[in-house]
Amino acid sequence: MVLITMAPMQGAAVLSAPLLLSSAATSSSSSEADDSPLASHRFEIQDVTKYDFPCKTLRGFESYKSLVVLSQHIGSVSCLALCGEFILSASQGKDIIVWQQPDLRQFTKFGEGEGSVKALVAVGNKVYTAHQDSRIRVWKVTRSSEDVFKLVDTLPTTKDYLGNFMKQSNYVETRRHHKHLWIEHADTISCLAYYKGLIYSGSWDKTLKVWRISDLKCLESIKAHDDAINSLVTRKGIVYTASADGKIKAWGTQGKASHSLLGVLEDHKDVSLNTVAVSDDGKWVYGGGSDGYVTGWEGNVGSFTWKWVGETKAHRMAVLCMCMEGELLCTGSTDKTIGIWKREAYGQLCKVGVISGHEGPVKCLQASPCNVGTGFMLYSGGLDKSLRVWWVPKGEHTAQQQAHE
């Protein structure tokens, strides 16, 4: 068993650390982020004894016990993001809860009544949220008012509308006899990501849009897929989109002003890809599908080529979300479990653990990049309306356990 205690907050009434110290990004799916400023020394691991994964590769095991279960959401938890001194969780119930690190007390709540939240990303002192009503909302984080998270804009902005609505050529047909401005999403925005001054949004309308943070202007709208975009990740200047059409596509500028298609990664036909995860170095790409499989590709970022390296039956039911921490890949599924996988030679995945505890499908995962003892903190949100916190041992710790047995 592992017992982790969380140190009490210093100066709870007046926070000394700045709000949202660094840019962080997610995806019920994942994205490129700066290092989280979460201070690992605030977590103290006590009484560290043998901690066995409930896994077929180990002879004896105990079930995982979640460290914290937070059940204050109105609806199912749809997305998570580590944002400076906070972790943000959003739900289908239109609410976004801000949890204060490290003791995970509720700091504030915002966003109620603004449409079901599908994705969120924090950049500097701004939080961008994507909604079912096909809008992106921009929230400014400030101490100068009672509203710490204050709504300051909606994308597309009024200025962007005024600059486009007069020209008929700026309208595109999204459905039969239905036209929208090219700067608008015509359906639910399912995912967001950030990279170097740009926000990327993927939608069920099959398009990928690019927004400039400095003036909130929509720069590009790309007809990216033949079906809904479910997840996107940015890594090393490349944008990866996963779609219900069964493909992952890689996009980049290659030094040009606009994005172009760099490569198409595909495996099974008639399988929706619900989520995509990419290693920090951009070499390994994994897609999670509706058939419960995780498929891997090895990439050469320099030459923009990717080759299929294998597939793994990860879950009995659909894989809904993934995140990576070092050589570990975490997968969440409709079967209510979280799989822990170690990336081995040639990108192959070895199962090292299974986490059980959610009472509904696991919709989103977020790993903290800060080590806590010999492991890291993993946050999971589910359709059971709960946010759960787990401690996951690193691969080398698991290997030592196996050797000991």
What is the CATH-assigned architecture? 7 Propeller
CATH fold title: Methylamine Dehydrogenase, Chain H
Strand content: over 45%
CATH superfamily: YVTN repeat-like/Quinoprotein amine dehydrogenase
Find the count of extended strands (DSSP E, 2+ residues): 33
Helix amount: under 10%
Figure out the total of helices.
2
The CATH class assignment is Mainly Beta
Q: What's the mean pLDDT score?
A: 81
Backbone structural class:
mainly beta
Give the overall shape, derived from the CA principal axes. Answer: globular
Strand order of the largest sheet: 2-9-10-11-12
Whole-Å distance between the termini?
Answer: 16 Å
- Supply the number of structural domains: 1
In terms of per-residue confidence, which ranges show pLDDT below 50 for 5 or more consecutive residues? 1-17, 22-63, 397-405
Rounded to an integer in angstroms, the radius of gyration calculated over CA atoms is: 21 Å
The largest pleated sheet is described as: 5 strands, antiparallel
